[in-house]
Write a structure and sequence with these properties.
There is one protein chain. This protein is of the alpha+beta class and about 110 residues long. The protein has a single domain, classed as Alpha-Beta Plaits. About 20% of the residues lie in helices and about 35% in strands. It contains two helices and four strands, in the order βαββαβ. The chain has a four-stranded antiparallel beta sheet with strand order 2-3-1-4, covered by helices on one side. Helix 1 packs antiparallel against helix 2 (about 85-95). The termini are close together.
């Protein structure tokens, strides 16, 4: 039977100029990956555009409250052991991401083992 490794795919959208800092923060929180033959594995998709409108009570890094804003972003994906997800999100992404509340998507996945 094929081995399956349970993981969480963490996806975050980030302005291009902050991508390296966010990625470094993520990898600083990861222990040895379950596959143990590579580390700092990640995927980038570029040329995304984020659209948002800051609402009253927000403190936008970019844009003005009440006005729709569009900004370039890249998509970063990493596979994270379930036990490390909280650290990756709270210490690896949030302190290094410029947005007040970054979009962080968590999907449970199974990696097909050797």
């Amino acid at each position: 039977m094929m081995e399956q490794i349970p993981l969480v795919r963490v996806t975050v959208y980030v302005p291009p100029e902050a991508a390296d800092a966010v990625l470094a923060g993520i990898h600083a929180e990861l222990a040895c990956p379950p596959w143990k033959i590579y580390d700092q594995v990640s995927w980038f998709s570029g040329a995304w555009i984020e659209q948002f409108r800051p609402l009253p009570g927000s403190t936008p890094t970019l844009g003005t409250v009440g006005e729709t804003m569009r900004a370039p972003s890249v998509r970063i994906e990493v596979l994270v052991p379930t036990a490390e997800v909280e650290a990756v999100v709270t210490r690896g992404i949030r302190p290094h991401h410029p947005w007040e509340r970054p979009v962080i998507i968590l999907d449970e996945v199974h990696l097909a083992g050797g």
